Each structure stands twice: as structure tokens, then as C-alpha cells.
Amino acid sequence: MNKCWWKEAVIYQIYPRSFMDSNGDGIGDLKGITQKLDYLKELGVDAVWLSPFYKSPNDDNGYDISDYRGIMEEFGTMEDFDEMQREMHKRGIRLIVDLVVNHSSDEHPWFVESRKSKDNPYRDYYIWRDGKNGQAPNNWTSHFSGSAWEYDEATDQYYLHLFSKKQPDLNWENPVVRREVYDIMNFWVDKGADGFRLDVASMYSKRPGLPDGDPGRAEIGSEHYQNGPRIHEFFHEMYDNVMAKHPGLMTVGETSGVTIEEAKKYAGLDTHEMSMVFQFEHVKLEYINGDKFNLRHVPLSEFKAVMSKWQTELDGKAWNSLYLANHDQPRSVSRWGDDTKYRKESAKMLYTMLMTMQGTPYVYQGEEIGMTNVHFDSIEDYQDIQIRNAWRARVENGGEDPEKMMQAIWYIGRDNARTPMQWDASPCAGFSTAAPWLKVNPNYKEINVKEALEDPDSIFWYMKELIRLRHESETAVYGDFTEYQKENEALYVYNRSLGDDNLLVVLNFTGEEQPFVLPRPMRGKTSALYVSNYENDGQMADRTLRPYEAAVYRWKETDK
Ligand code: GLC
Ligand code: CA
């Protein structure tokens, strides 16, 4: 089974800007996190993945770093960091920090130097090219709209930025840059970090010559930098320079565009690259031709096929991570559940799935109380650079229908996940005493932590129970996965098994009652209830499932 702590852990992601503001400036901070650690302890999570807290001009909320060893002033000081980490460790909570090294900020001293002259010692830290016929060096587009190249007058060349123009891509071909990265990693490990989440880890290696991309793609050029030619060499080198020196260190790569074959290399049980990857297939299913703001309805069978494929194909070969939300994705209950009438039932059903698959589950802040998407009326209320740039490019300059674009933002936009954490029903949801940097979701009076802690039937307590059971059950963590009734468009039915121990998971993905027929291998077996979001007696049988019902039964092969 190849056991280790990060396979058995449940990880909670904190987006610091939106978690808790301790000093009334409307911006979450490190002290705010420290104040809420008992809350996380109560929930029972094993580790926190903390989104970037380093010095940054905040063009992309900290994913544009100007000092990899400094703390963002708005978030506090290095003393605040040390205290937060100490308090986490005191509670047995590990800390995973975010490593953003595909690019830096354009305000990082490296780039400030790099852009000065062609012979500057830092020139080769970034990717500079001559233009072609007065235009950008190739046709690649940025993930935040427009060309991926920015012209810089000082040296009459262009630099590459796969994200905003304030996020120039680092040149991973340069061994000195790679050395800098490993030094940064070792700095944070020496400070006590227990692992890294590797930002856009599949994009470090660009195809030499930087050829034009297929213009029919939504992200033009991505075939030349996703899982690029040297990517696995780079991760082996990182492993040798960092991970190999610190046994137990956990790494999770954000690998947009990863395939099963690639995942087996990145996160293989003995490939010595990283611990696990975030795959993106299930969160890109709605995109038409890969276009995030052009969406379709996805039949349940397609969603299930993707989820099940990652379960069965990595089994015994590589390790999965499991997630339904993060700071780049909308709220899970709004996306796959019903965020009005059956908000509690459907959120619990979704988390039952999250906690009964093979892999390491990630909970994004607010999921544990069923926070929902937000619908701001005005584009001005959105802060996310991806949303703002896309609006400008597509609506203001591209003539697209504003109504349709707004619908897409409401459904998929990143700010859905970034509205402040809803702690209580007081103004600003208990997040801050001042107007927050991004407006609070107006539903905070009904949906908040205080309400959830007082309600024994809340999503919070159900999530806590799921985490407790996960810690108890090796079958839930390591068991193999078999799916039943694949073509059923209402139910997701699968079994996990480890030796003699089995968990049958039955999930109703609809707001209607649904007939459930017990699969053949479980017929005639006795069972006990493992967990359910409704009253249930625990004996597996043909039956009618209630709206968004989740029922998990524990049974043994050898029982009658
Ligand atoms: C990752 C981050 C996202 C950020 C981007 C650029 O996808 O999760 O928030 O905008 O990388 O760093
Ligand atoms: Ca603050």
C-alpha cells in the first residue's frame, strides 16, 4: 500500500486574503489565520495548504511574487508567520506552502535587472525574444486574455508571460534559475514547512524554438508548454535537490493539461518527482473547446467517467489528489449540487464522494459550511484579473453579449471562491470590521460558521464526521475502486475494497427521488451504515433514494 502521512491526510486550503482579517483593514492576514486554528482543529484536518503570502504587488493576489523570502506587508510579518506555523504544529496541523516559480512578479529584483539591458546578468532569468515582422515572437495567448508577449522598449524585445504581463515567465532552461528555486524551497523547509503546492507545475518547460501554437485552441500555444520536453527532468532535479533531503516532505503539482500517462510520471509511486498532482479533467468538462467562459451542461455519466478513470488508472501506480473546489474554481455546491433548496443535502452528498475516493482529499475554505457562488450585478464588483481582462477583451473590445458573459462569470468565475469567509451574521460576516477587499456574499446571514456550529445537522458536523471516518478507514484511503451502473444519469455507485473490507457508496446527484438497485455482488450480504446524510438503517437493499441522498455501507465479502 506504500503508506505515508500525506496519503492519509485531509488538507484544508486557505486563501489568506479572504480568510480572516485581524486588524480591520478589510484584508485577511496571518494573525487572522492563527486566531482560527482551533476551528480547523475542531474540523479535524491534518494540514493546511496556504495560498501565497509572500511579498507581491498583488496583480494576481500574491501569485505574482516580488520577494520569495519576504511576507506580504498586508498579511503581516515574518514573526506572524513563525507564530502561525508554531501554533499549527502545536495542534498537529502541517503546513503546505505555495511555490509560484513558473513566473515571478515584474517587480521582482531579478526582472527589474533583467529588463535593463541585453547583457544584464539577469537577462537570461526570463524569456526574451525579438519580435517577428513588428509583432510578437509567436501566437501564444495568455491565460488572462491577449498575447502572451509584452514588448519592452528599453531593449526592443518581447518577454513571455503565460499569465498577466506583470507575471513574466522564468527561464527554466537556465540552470542558475533552477538553483535559485531549490534554494527558495530549502529556505522554507528549513523554516518548518511540511510541503509545497507547485503552482502551474506542468508549464515550466517550453518547447525550444517556441513554435506557433494551433490557432484553433482556446489557450493558444499550450501544446508547446504543458508537460513540455524537459519537465520530468526538471522535477527529478528538484527531487534530488529538495525532496530527497527531507523525507516526508509533501509536494502536489498543479498540472493543468495532465493526462493519465503524464500523471504516472509526475506522481508515480517511485518516479521521484512529486507526491501527487491536481488533474483538471473534471473541472474543464463544461468548457466548450477549452474556453472557460463558454460553457455547456455536462451529463452525469461524463462526469462519472472522468472521476472513475482517474481512480482506476492510477490505482497502484500513482497517487491521486481529490478536489471539488479551490481559489480558481467556483463553489462546489453551486456547481454540482443545488445551492438553494437542497444546499445542505447536496453539499453533504458531494463531500461524501470527496472523502470516499482513493487519493488525498482537499477541502477549500468555506466548503465545510456550504458557501455558494456569488452573483454580483456589476462587473465593477469583481476583482479577479482573469475576469476583468476577459470582460475587457470579450465584451468591451470583442462585441460579445454582456449578459451571456455575466452568466458565465456567475457560474465559473474565480471570485466565487474568493468572497470573504463567512464567520457569523454580523456586518462583513465577521471577516472584518471594515469593508472587505471583495464584497461579502449577501447570503452570509444564513450561511456562516456560527450558525453551522450551533446546528447539529449542519454541513460542518457532517464534514467532521467524514474526516473522522476517513482517518479510521484504510479502505477509504487505499482501497480499490469499482464502479457500477455507469450509464445511470442520476446515481453514482461505486465500491471500495481492501482485503475483506468493503464500502459501497451510493450517491444521488439529483433533487428527485431515484430508484436504486443493489448491484449483484452485494446482494444477500449484511452491512452496517458507514455514513449517510439522511436517517438510514444501514442494510443495503433495493430502495428509493431521497433527493441528493448519500449512503455508504460497510460490508464484508465473507459475511452472509
Ligand atoms: C495558478 C493559480 C492561479 C494563478 C495562476 C498564475 O493557476 O492557482 O490562482 O492565477 O496559477 O500564477
Ligand atoms: Ca488585515
From TrEMBL:
BP-aspect Gene Ontology terms: oligosaccharide catabolic process
An annotated Gene Ontology molecular function: alpha-amylase activity
Cited InterPro entries: GH (IPR017853), GH13_cat_dom (IPR006047), Glyco_hydro_b (IPR013780), O16G_dom_2 (IPR045857)
Gene3D superfamilies in the cross-refs: Glycosidases (3.20.20.80), Golgi alpha-mannosidase II (2.60.40.1180), Oligo-1,6-glucosidase, Domain 2 (3.90.400.10)
Domain Glycosyl hydrolase family 13 catalytic: 13-418
Pfam families xref list: Alpha-amylase
Annotated keywords: Glycosidase, Hydrolase
SMART domains assigned: Aamy
Family classification: Belongs to the glycosyl hydrolase 13 family.
Protein name: Alpha-glucosidase
Natural source organism: Candidatus Enterocloster excrementipullorum
Lineage of source species: Bacteria, Bacillati, Bacillota, Clostridia, Lachnospirales
